[in-house]
Amino acid sequence: MLTDETLVHSLSKCMESFTIAASSGQVPSIETLYEMISRSKSVASILPAVEANEHRHSMLQTIIATLEITTKQMENGKREFVRELDGDEQMDTSDDKEKLDSFAASRKNALEATIVTNIESLPLLSDIMGLKEAKEALLEALVDPLLYPEWFEQSNISPWRCVLLFGPPGTGKSALCGAIAREVNARFYTISSSDLISSWSGQSEKLIRSLFDIVLANEEPSIIFMDEVDSLCRKRNTNEDDANRRVKTELLVQISRLQSSKSRVFLISATNCPWDLDPAFLRRFEKKIYIGLPDSEAREALFAKLLERTEMSAEVSWKWLSSVTEGHSGDDIRRLSNEIAFAQFRLYKAAKKIMDTTTRKMLNRDEISGIISKSPPTVSREYVRQFESYAN
Ligand SMILES: Nc1ncnc2c1ncn2[C@@H]1O[C@H](COP(=O)(O)OP(=O)(O)OP(=O)(O)O)[C@@H](O)[C@H]1O
Ligand SMILES: [Mg+2]
Questions:
Q1: How big is the CA angle at 184 (ends 181 and 185), to the nearest 5 degrees?
Q2: Which residues form the AAA+ ATPase domain (predicted)?
Q3: What angle do CA 129, 183, 274 make, to 5 degrees?
Q4: Contact present, 170 and 383 (Cβ < 8 Å)
Q5: Which strands, in side-by-side order, build the sheet including 265-271?
Q6: Which atom of ligand 1 is nearest to the CA of 177?
């Protein structure tokens, strides 16, 4: 329950930690910054309750003003702190060195986490149904320069380096990318934007730079897979903060570096909303491939693979299953297959309970239609149309 007392206490704690830091005339320590941020958050969390009370309006104004000043000071402190750390070589105190080491170590850990070392965990290309055009285009981009290097040397055409896969969710973009890496036996770095965003300003840029340094220094063919690239490379806008802008700029610089290098590194990105991407990024993707919903043949192949070991009555063919699931994504079909397999398992369990192991009841069309009607497609027609008109 919010009382004036708790409010004043929280506010004074917030100010106290800030005053201690400011009065020393130095950049606040990292611990103090954390402390101040946490205190400010606790004050901010009780603000809505204050707002509800008219009489406390002026108190609220004071708190807001105080928070604004404190936040600004904290940001300055953080910037100063990072600037100091950036002058890596000139650092002399063991305390600072320790902090730098911990940043370097966490950068290293983050980079190591991006490398998929267990290639066997990736799907096989034959596990990916349909997407014929996408498979061919990716293999052409990755394999042909290795098989026919002389052609690429003679002509002034350089192989594609940056490919964008776009399409509705659950259509196999991530799975396809992993399968391609496994097929060509490339080193596979898979990163999502959250891996690249560090809450410490300056650290995200360094992380991106280090990643490209490592990958480009590598002789082996490598693939960097940047998933959900839209959250990192959205159109720039005037309200964007500096940190975001710097991350984007660094990424653009590194992509250009990749494109002008002689290494065998490919960047494959995936997105559900290509229309939100910054034009500067879009321009860098030499090939944009639409990954759409599976067609009837692909749906048939998916059911055949996923329900290979599930017995169903003879009237339930893969063709029939495909015909009643138009509009379902690959992921929808995976989930539906699980449901069907479980429904069949329940029949088995029921028979076992009454000790009847001789009659095997198989799911019929009606029962399967019932299951399908409870799992409608997750991607709307309207959304698909949006992709199709973007793709053409
Ligand atoms: N064409 C396909 N062939 C085989 N499996 C597929 C296909 N499409 C989807 N799947 C399966 O559906 C699941 C989800 O696929 P995946 O994560 O690759 O989709 P995505 O397009 O990357 O989705 P998102 O846009 O949400 O990231 C995976 O288990 C994948 O194997
Ligand atoms: Mg994905």
A1: 75
A2: 159-295
A3: 60
A4: no
A5: 115-116, 187-192, 222-227, 265-271, 162-166, 287-290
A6: 18
Strands 222-227 and 287-290: unpaired
Tokens representing residue 252 in the block: 């653009």
Q: Name the residue with tokens 């730079």.
A: 209
Cα dihedral across residues 188, 168, 307, 345: positive or negative: positive
For residue 112, report the distance from its CA to the centre of ligand 1, in Å: 25
- Taking a C-beta distance cutoff of 8 angstroms, is the pair 243, 204 a contact? yes
Of 213, 227, 224, residue with least CA distance to 261:
213
Judge whether 290 and 167 are in contact, CB under 8 Å: yes
Please tell me the distance between residue 279's alpha carbon and the centre of ligand 2 in angstroms.
22
CA distance readout (Å), 10 to 1, 43, 126, 247, 276: 13, 6, 60, 35, 41
Question: Is-contact 199 33, C-beta < 8 A?
Answer: no
b/e map 62-73, b = 16+ CB within 10 Å: ebeebbeebeeb
How far apart, in whole angstroms, are the C-alpha atoms of residue 139 and residue 164?
14
Chain-centre distance for alpha carbon 383: 20
Looking at ligand 1, which atom is closest to the CA of residue 271?
A: 25
Half-sphere exposure of 102 (CA within 13 A, CB side): 7
Q: Which ligand is nearest to the CA of 272?
A: 1
pLDDT tens, 125-174? 999 999 998 999 888 888 888 778 788 888 877 788 899 999 999 999 99
Nearest ligand for residue 335 CA: 1
Q: Give the residues surrounding ligand 1 with Cβ less than 6 Å away.
A: 123, 127-131, 169-175, 270, 272, 294, 298, 302, 330-331, 334
Residue 187 to residue 264: CA distance in whole angstroms: 10
Q: What's the gap in Å between 346 CA and the centre of ligand 2?
A: 32
Separation of CA 128 and ligand 1 centre (Å) = 9
pLDDT, tens only, 197-233: 665 666 778 888 888 888 888 878 889 999 888 878 8
Q: Return the amino acid letter for 241.
A: D
Longest Cα–Cα distance in the chain: 86
